[in-house]
Amino acid sequence: MTATATRVRAAARPSAPAARMRAPGARKKLELTFLLGPALVLFTGFVLVPIGIAAFYSLYEWNGFGPLDDFVGLGNYADALSGSVFQGAIGHNLIIAGLSLVIQLPLSIGLALLLNRKLRGRAVLRALVFAPYVLSEAITAVIWLLMLQPNGFVDQMIRGIGLGGLVQHWLADPGIVLYTLFAVITWKYIGFGIILLLAGLQGVPAELREAAALDGASAWQTTRHVVLPLLGPTIRIWVFLSVIGSLQLFDLVWIMTLGGPADASATMATYLVDHGFKRYEFGFGSAVAVILFVICFVFALLYQRFALRRDTDGALTRMVD
Question: How do residues 268-289 score in pLDDT, each as one tens digit?
């Protein structure tokens, strides 16, 4: 009887190898829960929940006070998308994004290639190029706001080199204010693009350049057919960050122009703040916020699907290998 009970207990007890196989899986789940749990809680509380609340408020005409009793459904969205000012704001964001790709990207690549060479004082030059990016948007906006005032530093400098006819009302002319802001944006953020591209250039093997030179390729041919293709993943990351930043542009514009004059420099973010907080149209402002979120989210999904997919697939393949 005792022997039979012992055999039953032995059969019911899991074998040592099986217990060892289950232990790593349980430990891994525990580690993931411990490491990812706080981040998921913060992400839910500070990202997902506010998005849901904004989507809920956007269905009401609400000034931020009192109960939500004036349900308008999608009326706020229709009013925003049909408004000429908001349509113009979307266009301004797209213009800034387009100019970033057409002007900032080639300029960043050229300066990164230059600063990647062995130059005297290269470290100092890199620091000077990156310095504007370290400044906060508020400080940058105030500095340039003072310099672009009539008879300010910019006007005096232009007159000093004999080009006084080019002096303009930089922040008061609806025809050029957006491009003036883009010049400030370029001064502010081009350092980040250059540093990012310099980091990507460190991953280009020197052996490939030497092999191209031995095959008779010129410096331009080596750059065009060897360096730039290998720099592709870094360039695609820069493009993504640049476009998303252009769509969410707010600080510099708000401090320097408040979206003016005559809404000539308004962006989606400044339009949101103007209506949502200054005019106490919280329901309408929430609808604009949701529209801005959807535009950025859709762009991120499409860009990930069609532009970054091969980069992420390659990274996953290297991790598996």
Answer: 999 999 998 888 899 999 999 9
Find out whether 258 and 270 touch, Cβ atoms under 8 Å: yes
Please name which of 64, 21, 20 lies closest in space to residue 280, comparing C-alpha atoms.
Answer: 64
Do 209 and 59 contact (CB within 8 A), yes or no? no
Tokens of 62: 């609400």
Question: Torsion angle of alpha carbons 73, 79, 82, 88, nearest 10°?
Answer: -130
The DSSP letter of residue 279 is S
Q: What is d(CA 247, CA 269) in angstroms, rounded to the nearest whole number?
A: 8
Q: Is the dihedral of CA 13, 19, 23, 26 positive or negative?
A: negative
Which residue type, as a one-letter code, is found at position 12?
A
Region class of 66: left (phi > 0), else alpha (psi between -120 and 50), else beta: left
Using alpha carbons, list the distances in angstroms from residue 231 to 61, 166, 198.
49, 38, 10
In order of 195, 250, 251, 271, 276, the CA distances from 266 in angstroms are 30, 9, 12, 6, 14
pTM of the model: 0.84
Nearest residue to 50 (alpha-carbon basis) of 318, 313, 293, 312: 293
Rounded CA separation 81/87 (Å): 7
Would you call the peptide bond into 205 cis, given omega within 30 degrees of 0 as the criterion? no
Separation of alpha carbons 94 and 103, rounded Å:
14
Q: Kindly state the tokens that stand for 235.
A: 């360039």
pLDDT tens, residue by residue, 211-267: 888 888 888 888 888 888 889 899 999 999 999 999 999 999 999 999 989 999 999
Compute the distance between CA of residue 269 and CA of residue 259 in angstroms, rounded to an integer.
10
Q: Which helix (H) or strand (E) holds 36?
A: helix 16-43
> How far, in Å, CA of 1 to CA of 252, rounded?
86
Q: Which of 197, 80, 176 is nearest to 130 (CA)?
A: 197
Give the three-state DSSP class for 71.
Answer: strand
First vs last Cα of the chain: how many Å apart? 55
Contact status, residue 226 vs residue 211, Cβ threshold 8 Å: no
